[in-house]
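Anyone have tokens for Aminopeptidase N? Sequence:
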Amino acid sequence: MTVDPYLPGHGDASYTVRHYDLDLDYALENNSLKGQAVLTIEALEDLSELTLDLHALKVVKLSGPRISKHSHTDGRLRIRLQQPISVGKTTKLTVTYRGVPTPVPDKIGEAGWEELADGVIVASQPGGAPSWFPCNDRPDAKAPYRITISTASDYFVVANGQRTAVRRRAGRTTWTYEQSEPMAPYLATVQIGRYAEHTIPASVPLTAAVPPARRAAFDRAFADQPQMIELFERLFGPYPFGSYRVVVTDDSLEIPLEAQGLSIFGSNLLSRTWDAQRLIAHELSHQWFGNAVTLRRMRDIWLHEGFACYAEWLWSQESGGPSTHERAEEAWERLRRHRGSLLLGDPGVSDVFDDRVYKRGALTLHAIRLTIGDEAFFELLQTWVRRHSGGNVSTDDFTALADELGHSEVADVVDAWVYQIALPPLP
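Reply: yep, here.
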């Protein structure tokens, strides 16, 4: 069954996962991963079989409900049950597995567990979660997580949520993190490196895991991050998670990425240039738009990337750079000169992360702001986050909320910018 045509071969709509408990053991010297995953599964329909996503790794054992047979091919672990699970009922399924984790190839691009020069980065957007744990790989199958990982003691481990335990024994250290807020599988992450962690004074608990030799460069490049948090809390509402972390790899990375409660940057972005600063703001803003409030289907990616791009423009004005409107006018002019066409509300697999999605998505928000005014616009954004935090959304949900708040004209703006190919003029 195809749950999302942008990610064929991922997800199973017949059930959801209510909790993940992941117990991992990783050997850096040969990139070897051993894992035991306990999934609390709820049937969304009468369930006689189910499918998990697990790429490249070998299933060693299955336990929990009575299983008549299973197969594991092409990254899909298909399980037939001896006794059906009735709709609404839950059960616990334990999968023991091992192997060498590798990124998951999809039409959108590779994602998942990758080796660094000296460590590990897990960048799972959009379909890389099965590279390191069995899951129902759908963005609308959000769940709390407990992640425990053991590895060599001279490495520092970061994962989602609050760190609740660190145990050292015989040259190995076991780290435990609890992610209590619901999280989409692609946002689950583990980062392993020779990092030192330090705390940054801010309005929310803020830490950074950075190679010691990069500390001075980090302090300069990320000096404005507390002010970014203050701005986004003022405009979008309270920060949605218990803490925020930044990880900086010693390697250069082509792009930064966000996971729930943290963001990961390459050392090549330790800079005060606008291109670096806008990305620091961009990844931070995803905690509200993408992580707390998550799309239901990939075609609505503008609800993540358009919002995060608009946050860049808001920070530009706040930090003394070009105003938000000037950034919008510049982006509009670039889109006007671009000869290719793109439907923002369904850009297609090949263009889902195209820069035009980011810019036209941000312009959609700016057009709404110009139409309904600043006070109504930011009330809409704050209500959007407050109403849907921990859940999943679509573009129709956004226009419905605007209508509920008395801004029926937003539907016309969204229709012109999201569902028509022609580039509208800015209001």
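The chain has three domains: 1-188, 195-287, 293-418.
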